[in-house]
Task: structure prediction
Amino acid sequence: MPNEAKLQQLALKLFEIDAFKFGDFKMKVGINSPVYFDLRVIVSHPDVMDTLTDLLNEFIADKKLSQAGGHLCGVPYTALPLATLVSIKGNKPMLIRRKEAKKYGTKKLIEGKFNADDTCLIIEDVVTSGSSILETVEDLRSEGLVVTDAIVVVDREQGGAKNTEERGVRMHSLYTLSYLLKVLLEAKRIEESTVKAVAKYIEACQIRSDGSFMHGNGTKVVNELTRVGMTFEARADLAKCPLAKDLFKLIATKKTTLCLAADLTTSEEILNIAEAAGPYICILKTHVDIVSDFSDQFVRSLQSLAKKHNFLLLEDRKFADIGNTVAQQYGGGLYRIADWADLVTVHSLPGQGILKGLKATISDKPATLRGVFLLAEMSTQGALTDEKYATATMKIATEMESDFVAGIVCQGKDVVASPGLLQLTPGVKLEEGVDTMGQLYDSPERVVKDRGADICVVGRGILNSKTPSEMARVYRDRLWEAYLERVSGEKNGSEKN
Result:
């Protein structure tokens, strides 16, 4: 093996230049990952390229792979610079595989001089499922070349080695993901919680060559391991927002995804419904600007009930102004929302500045956990929140103030990819339909299983019931059963009426 000290030094350098990073990233194989490798950045760092090339050549010599590779071929296109330098420094002839054959001239798929039965060693930067290696192997073999081995810089340890071996290709990795995490942890570049979260995710997401997903214990995952296929317990470790972590755990412990919209106009009515439905909800949603007798005593009583029944308070304020204004609306005025609401809803229309303004309000309260739900879509007919708006909202949520964003208010499961974010969806009712003001309603099963909701908002379905407590229990049970079916992979279809 190459020198251990050099390997560790290069690992730290790769981290410094953002060749790999931690967050929420969409992968080629269709899943989201808490760690992302982008080794393309090394082309801007000649010293890193030089060191990595030397280590790869040492690795090839140590593994005695010279006979396996009369030629070298980098997987297009990110591994081509590396393969070129390894070829030059190792004095090995190189081949180039085109992603599609030329439509003119020789119409070659493989560029370079070779004969049938010549051997070729594959060079790849990062491997998840091994599909890119296998695509390259197939094209090389179709030209009569013999391919038995591949060298990779980083193995994400998600099934790539096993998948390539099943197709007759041994995969040798300079780094494994677990080794890189160990090096970064020892160097105090990352926290142990990050290591555990990534390890747990990778263990739960092994990918087979046919594109299916496997749990670490070998059982097949029926539905793809995306956000909607993961349990709340597993997703809690991937949340960047501390309040979202707590909410994930609250939901899992209390076994409820029900958010009650207490859109009532008097303190007494809201407190009564909170007492009645409290045991069955994870969130109580308010509109305090319609409460005719709002007072500090009302707030204290509401907080007391939230503590008693273990639910969070969400003020559906829908902030939508410049940062300086929303900071005053959030922290001051008659309602002083920041003092008591765990969560608030926010329009993303003003851009990142609105989150900065809200966050600044609580900057002097480090012990107070607060979070926001960004509105990406609305549940009314004719809403102007289109796909472009939803995409822009998600960019703010995942790339900017991600430690403050607990989730997204939206209507479809394709909006929220990140498993660390919660999808909150309004418009849930046992009887589907549209009210006189254009509010759309779907059944609990459809909202959870078809539309991907994590937290479902129910208002009049409970508020107008003669027995609100019993109706809240019915909604809780229906929603939780739908969630269990969703994560177990049971097919949708058996709607309850």
Summary: The chain has two domains: 4-225, 229-488. The domain at 4-225 is CATH 3.40.50.2020 (Rossmann fold). The longest helix spans residues 468-488. The two ends are 64 Å apart (CA to CA).
